[in-house]
Structure formats: structure tokens, C-alpha cells
Design brief:
This protein is an alpha+beta fold. It contains 15 helices and 13 strands. β10 and β11 form a beta hairpin.
Length: about 425
């Protein structure tokens, strides 16, 4: 859950940047189709780029930034191994709240689709100029388009069908309902970012501007059409994922109808998103941000069952050449830091002997990543107990090959230090001390 939460946070951050640049530079232009493409592309970027960054496809090699903990030089984040924690930290609570909000939003979307399909299934079907039109008897519900269906109230069909059908056909031909469904999925995923819902509102407005433009160009009297829009202001929209006739502000729609078409050169404003997104990606790829993301990702640690770790005698590989304390480009675990922490938390087991003896603490293991990427010469440089030391060594020696560290373009041997913290639940510790 922590990984999903941090991923959605990065997605929402990029989407906010897309929305801000769009609002400042493009929202007042009449390049409706182009603006729509820009927003959809922004939604895609907000989903794809964080995934690539988190799973190591875009991770730049990290500069060595060792810190000093109790006099021991550390080059990797600490990995905590907890038997059965009873307390939940703030990041864990935030992750659970996020998942709850995500599930509620998805449930609302599914119910909306179900209601739409149920309404459409009960409609009467007629054909107008070769188009299939669904008619219902609820006059309070405005006309809408969704999933390839044009849905009209009986009153609209009898009184205003020409204008309404031209309008809804524009939605149908441009697959606006697909945009709204995609935007709804993204906004469900990033539900706590207000800008994700604002992007959906912008898309909805663009859809209406496109449809209004087609109606006016079809030869319909502009004033009659504007009066119809005003008349439908009081109508009830069915669902946010449907292209309803009275979506968006009527005032803004009328203003857009009166505007002159923007020059094609205004599309160049969209290029402002490129340096803005590039700067955001560089910021998200800094060590400081990575540390925060890793902390969030690791907030929901795996609860480990008490199992006895099998004895594991690591095979010592021969090292050739100098071993470096720090290098320009550190060795990289396959998949990045998040993948490494996931591997360690899945593999580390709390030894049965350590549980019986109420042993806990931080075992610090130092090892070498060879110029071929192998984990070699792992040693405990700060001990807690024999069983905990052995478990930490076992898992470190079972790690897969890294991407070697580099000095210039040459692979070299590099020291790494990994703290592994073993912690028993507080209640268990307290009960043991009482027994003694």
C-alpha cells in the first residue's frame, strides 16, 4: 500500500503541474481539439513517468552520500524487520486512508456505470437520420451520451431533437465518454489531489465547447441554441462520466460561442509543459525525494512470522583490484531501492532463537559489490546476537547481482553497508520483562 500511495502522490504532483500550465497558457484559447489532446497526454504522463521512475527505468545513478550512525559509515537505507508490530505510524495510517478513499471512488464509478447501463436498457429505441437514439420518460434528466448511446428525454425528442441530437452526436463521434472514463479512473487513483478532479472538469468543458461549435456550424440559429442551453440549466445531470447536455458553465459556453477562433500559433504554448515537466522529473529524481518516497513505500512493512532461518554458509568470491569506499556512480540494485527493500523485507525472517531470548537491535552488515556486480565478503561490523547476525548475513549473501559501481566508465569494487533492524513488539517485550 505504501508503494501505491507514493506512486499516486508523484502522479498527482505531475498532474497538478500539467493543470497549472494549461490553465495559465491554454484554457482561454479556442483550440478545443488540441487542448483536449494536451490534457489527455498530461494524464498519461502523470501515470507513466512516476511508474518508470519508481521501478528504476529512469533512475540516474546515485552519488554516494554516506551518513554516520554511531561511528559506522552507512551507504544504504536501514531495513526494519518487525515480528508483529502493534502500533501503526502516521505513514501507515495515511496509506490506509488513501486505499479507503480509492476503493470508495472506484465503487462510485462502478455504481455510476451500472446505473447508466440500467437506464439505457429501459429506454425505447428509435432511429433518427440513421442514428440510434434511446428515449426515456424522466423529463428532469437532461440528454446525455455514453458508451456509444445517445439518450434523450421524451420531451427533448419531441421539441428539440434536431439541436440536441447534433450536439450529442458530436460527443459520440469524438468518443468523449472514453475521455471522461479515463479521467475518472485517474482521479480515483489520485483522489486526494484536487487538481485531478479539476483536469476532469476542464475536459468536460472542452467536450461541450467542441459539441457547441459543431451545432453552430451545422446551421442552427445561435440564439435559439443559446436559449435552449439556458432552459436546460435546471436539468439534472445523470453522472459525471456521461457527456450531459448541460455539463459545464452555460455562461462560459455562450462566451466561447461568441469568440473568434484562436490562431494556430497559440498551440506553441503547450511547449511550456516540456521544461516544466522536465524540472519536475529532475526534482522527483533527487536523493532527498527518493528518500521520502522510499519511506512512504516502506511504511506498510511486511509482518514476519516466527520461523527459524536455515543455516547458510555463503560462498566467498574472489575480488580483484582495489575496493573503493565511495565512487562517482554507486552500484544499483536491479529495480532500484524500492525493489531492494521489498526483497529484504520478504527474505528476512525473525529467528526463533532470537524470539525466545527476547533479542532485538540493529545488525550492521558490510559487503562488497564487485566489478561484476556480485555481493562478496559480507561481514557483520556491528553485532547483536549470533542468530540475528546469521540471519542478516544469510539474506545479504542471497541478494541478486547489482549493476556495478563505476569510476568514470570502468566497473570497480565498492563497499556497501546495510543496517538491518530487528524489533520485537513492545507488548511482548514488556511481558517478558515482567516474567523475569
Amino acid at each position: 500500500m505504501g508503494t501505491l500511495f507514493s506512486y499516486s502522490f508523484m502522479s498527482g504532483l505531475l498532474l497538478s503541474l500539467v493543470w497549472l500550465v494549461y490553465r495559465i497558457g491554454m484554457s482561454r484559447t479556442t483550440c478545443y481539439a488540441f487542448n483536449r489532446v494536451v490534457l489527455i497526454a498530461g494524464l498519461c504522463v502523470a501515470l507513466v513517468v512516476p511508474a518508470m521512475m519508481m521501478y528504476g527505468f529512469m533512475n540516474a545513478p546515485e552519488a554516494a552520500s554516506p551518513s554516520d550512525v554511531d561511528g559506522i559509515e552507512l551507504g544504504l537505507p536501514s531495513v526494519s524487520v518487525t515480528l508483529a508490530p502493534e502500533t501503526i505510524d502516521a505513514l501507515s495510517v495515511a496509506s490506509y486512508v488513501y486505499v479507503a478513499g480509492f476503493l470508495i471512488s472506484v465503487a462510485h464509478m462502478v455504481m455510476s456505470i451500472y446505473r447508466l447501463l440500467m437506464l439505457i436498457s429501459k429506454c425505447e429505441t428509435v432511429h433518427v437520420d440513421g442514428k440510434k437514439v434511446m428515449i426515456h420518460d424522466d423529463d428532469t434528466l437532461v440528454s446525455f451520451t455514453w458508451g456509444g448511446h445517445i439518450v434523450l428525454s421524451r420531451t427533448d425528442y419531441e421539441r428539440n431533437r434536431n439541436m440536441v441530437i447534433v450536439h450529442e452526436t458530436a460527443h459520440l463521434e469524438r468518443f468523449h465518454w472514453v475521455d471522461l472514463l479515463f479521467a475518472k479512473m485517474v482521479s480515483s487513483f489520485t483522489w486526494y489531489w484536487p487538481t485531478s478532479w479539476m483536469v476532469m472538469d476542464e475536459l468536460r468543458s472542452l467536450h461541450e465547447y467542441e459539441a457547441d461549435y459543431k451545432v453552430v456550424k451545422s446551421g442552427v440559429d445561435r440564439k435559439d441554441y443559446q436559449m435552449l442551453l439556458i432552459e436546460k440549466t435546471a436539468g439534472v445531470r445523470f453522472q459525471s462520466i456521461a457527456s450531459s447536455f448541460n455539463n459545464s458553465s452555460i455562461k462560459l459556453r455562450i462566451i466561447q460561442m461568441m469568440k473568434k477562433q484562436s490562431k494556430g500559433t497559440v498551440r506553441m504554448r503547450a511547449l511550456a509543459m516540456l521544461p516544466a515537466l522536465a524540472l519536475a522529473m529532475l526534482a522527483l529524481n533527487t536523493n532527498e525525494v527518493k528518500a521520502i518516497v522510499n519511506e512512504i513505500s516502506a511504511s506498510n512493512s511486511v509482518v514476519l512470522e516466527s520461523v527459524t532461518a536455515p543455516d547458510d554458509k555463503s560462498t566467498q568470491k574472489k575480488l580483484n583490484g582495489k575496493i573503493y569506499e565511495s565512487v562517482e556512480h554507486l552500484p544499483e540494485y536491479p529495480g532500484g531501492m524500492v525493489a531492494m527493500q521489498t526483497f529484504l523485507k520478504n527474505e528476512l525472517k525473525y529467528p526463533e532463537e532470537a524470539i525466545k531470548n527476547n533479542e532485538e537491535g540493529t545488525v550492521v552488515v558490510r559487503f562488497v559489490v564487485s566489478d561484476k556486480g556480485d555481493v562478496c565478503d559480507a561481514k557483520v561490523i556491528r553485532s547483536v546476537s549470533k542468530s540475528l547476525d546469521a540471519e542478516a548475513l544469510r539474506v545479504v549473501n542471497s541478494m541478486p547481482a547489482f549493476k556495478p559501481g563505476l569510476v568514470g566508465d570502468k566497473p570497480v569494487n565498492v563497499y556497501f553497508t546495510l543496517p538491518c533492524r530487528f524489533a520485537l513488539p513492545k507488548a511482548s517485550t514488556a511481558s517478558e520483562s515482567k516474567k523475569q
